[in-house]
Design brief:
By secondary structure, the chain is of the alpha/beta class. A 5-stranded parallel β-sheet has the order 2-3-1-4-5, with helices on both faces. β2, α2 and β3 form a beta-alpha-beta unit. The chain is elongated. The mean pLDDT is about 90.
């Protein structure tokens, strides 16, 4: 029997995730009142029940009883009804942007600023977040990437350590990404921009990749960077970090940074213990300025 409580910040994607859980065979119930969770769990765990995979959505609409959630979960686990907690999170800036785009009111900020509601919600959910088995930060995740993470955990039963690594290429002339954890400058490499036949291509094109990687310093840089990332990641996981953004920049974010970001992504792909994605922030911006 799999019993999953899906909770987290409003705007982090809980409704979408619950639909995805339903798609992979879970019986899903959204926002059941907290005082009814134990009774529902007893029915689900009953040997005569036809339910073998259950996902229960829990959010701040239960605000008055949210303080009871920790005690309820402890009692379930003590009574041989093991439940797993999936917590979806996102940074404040992303949550505010999502609320503005959808023109929705935060459930704890009726008549007030969204920021106040987010702050209050984080306080109310702090305890259940500490109880969580899985924490997924959706700040930079596409819908298909979230689906892949859920399938990894709940369909394929793969190990999951809550860390999601984003490799991001960018151009310094457009500014350093504000959410970067680690920033690397690859402007020391020869620039394909000054080669006429390569000027309007980018690091996703083989010609640019061949040009950049022909230089020994590019390979040496990648070797040292890969070694450092492999060294750091276990410590990030131990510290409970759930989002790591590795930003690689060149002048325009089109040639060198894209090539090296792609190469690093290839080297880290398939490693166990964390999710991985890649994004090239500034290729479209440069394309518009040809």
């Amino acid at each position: 029997m799999k019993f999953v409580i899906l909770t987290g910040m409003s705007g982090a994607g809980k409704s979408t995730a619950l639909k995805m859980m339903e798609d992979i065979g879970y019986y899903c119930v959204d926002n059941l009142p907290i005082p009814l969770i134990e009774r529902f769990a007893e029915l689900a765990f009953d040997p005569t029940s036809e339910m073998n995979k259950v996902a229960l959505g829990l959010d701040i609409r239960n605000a008055k009883n949210m303080g009871e959630a920790h005690e309820v979960i402890c009692r379930l686990r003590e009574n041989n009804m093991p439940c797993e907690i999936l917590y979806l999170d996102a940074d404040d800036q992303t949550l505010i942007k999502r609320y503005k785009e959808t023109r929705r009111n935060h459930p704890l900020a009726v008549g007030e600023r969204v920021e106040n509601g987010i702050y209050s919600e984080r306080e109310k959910l702090a305890e259940i977040k500490r109880d969580a088995n899985y924490i997924i930060d959706t700040s930079r995740l596409l819908t298909r990437e979230l689906k892949g993470e859920l399938e990894k955990i709940f369909l394929n039963n793969q190990d999951f350590n809550n860390l999601f690594v984003s490799i991001l290429s960018f151009g310094f002339k457009y500014g350093i990404p504000t959410d970067s954890d680690l920033v690397f400058d690859v402007r020391f490499l020869p620039n394909p921009y000054y080669v006429e036949d390569l000027k309007y291509k980018n690091g996703n094109d083989k010609e640019i990749q061949d040009f950049v990687m022909q230089f020994p310093q590019a390979e040496e840089f990648l070797n040292k960077l890969e070694d450092m990332i492999n060294y750091l990641i276990p410590y990030y996981i131990d510290e409970g970090k759930n989002q790591l953004v590795i930003s690689i920049g060149c002048t325009g974010g089109k040639h060198r940074s894209v090539t090296l970001a792609n190469e690093l992504y290839k080297r880290l792909s398939g490693k166990k213990g964390y999710g991985l994605r890649i994004e090239h922030r500034d290729i479209p911006k440069d394309a518009l300025r040809k």
